[in-house]
Amino acid sequence: MTATYAIAVLPGDGIGPEVVQGALDVLDAAEARFGFTTTRNEVTAGANHYLATGELFDEVEEELRGADAVLFGSMGDPRVTPGILERGFILEMRQRFAQAANVRPVRLYPGVPTPIAGLTPERCDMVIVRENTEGAYVGRGSTVHAGTPNAVAMQESLNTYAGIERVVDFAFRLALGRRKKLTLCHKTNILVAAGQLWQQVVAEVGARYPEVETDYVHVDAMCFHLPLTPERFDVVVTDNLFGDIITDLGAVIQGGLGVATSANLNLDGSAPSMFEAIHGSAPDIAGTGAANPAGAILSLALMLGHLGEGEAARAVEAATVEVLAELPALAGPAMGMNTTEIGARIAELVRSGNANTDLVPDSLLGTLAALAPSRR
């Protein structure tokens, strides 16, 4: 019996619609080759919609909730005050859908240039697991005496045992299937209360996974070690804010934001997971064809792995890596192909089955998100 998946598509703003279209073209090719089908519901949201209607997440929540997975482009526009779309839509979706683990692979693929001299793919293959619903991103804060020299701003960071435990357990399970090493990244010498709770949870959960070695690195030290000795890390688990920062550094190491991908995973199947490239909306290059769709297409591979289509996920990953290695540059007109052409080339390799799957002998994207239950 042919499997059918309901996909909610959120193209969003800026380059989002362009890179998502590339992913959908590759999804067409994967369906044709591997025999599954999807129904796709394009959901209107983002800056233009907000400016016209004032609507954010509330108005589309139920529409999104009915999907098996959400494929997301980007959101953000200089016409909208910073924080409105990010907090009123993206963070709202992560929290209401209990997308507890933000999973960001940092993997240097063969043939992809990196600014780190001498770095090879064998030395750079890790996954950063970021707690995704708590920390400084709970949106709790206030300002008094705003606009005066006496202004005072307070921003809260919330850490709960339950919230930490669910993402730490996921990270241990992920490490168990990889190189069996987990590193906690925090700032325990300054953020003592939160840091002690994170350390307590890692120690208690780690007792259930004696095969996995545990390690600890301060977040500032992580910014030193990550580009110089990435081979030190296998699975890194960290809080929301620290994870947001170090994964952008990781993206640079692996070739840039245009090739970096992520999954926002609901860990109990109670709501859909969301898959997105980690770049922003880049309004300055929207419509120019200069955006690299690879991050969005690799996000599609993550989504396919999560839905149980691991073979298709590996084919999409391999095809994307092969095309990335063909590009003289990974951004802008110097790429040699525009956004549409890159997507079409990847789709062609997926459809034909000619992609070199030896480029991804252990398909991270094909298996990673499958650790979390899908809606099916």
Automatic annotation (TrEMBL):
Domain of life: Bacteria
Molecular functions per Gene Ontology: 3-isopropylmalate dehydrogenase activity; magnesium ion binding; NAD binding
InterPro entries tied to this protein: ICDH/IPMDH, IsoCit/isopropylmalate_DH_CS, IsoPropMal-DH-like_dom
Oxidoreductase recorded as keyword: yes
Protein keywords: Manganese, Metal-binding, NAD, Oxidoreductase
Domain Isopropylmalate dehydrogenase-like residue range list: 6-346
PROSITE patterns: IDH_IMDH
Pfam families for this protein: Iso_dh
EC number(s) on file: 1.1.1.85
Cofactor(s) named in the record: Mn(2+); Mg(2+)
PANTHER family hit by this protein: D-MALATE DEHYDROGENASE [DECARBOXYLATING]
Protein name listed in UniProt: 3-isopropylmalate dehydrogenase
Organism: Leucobacter exalbidus
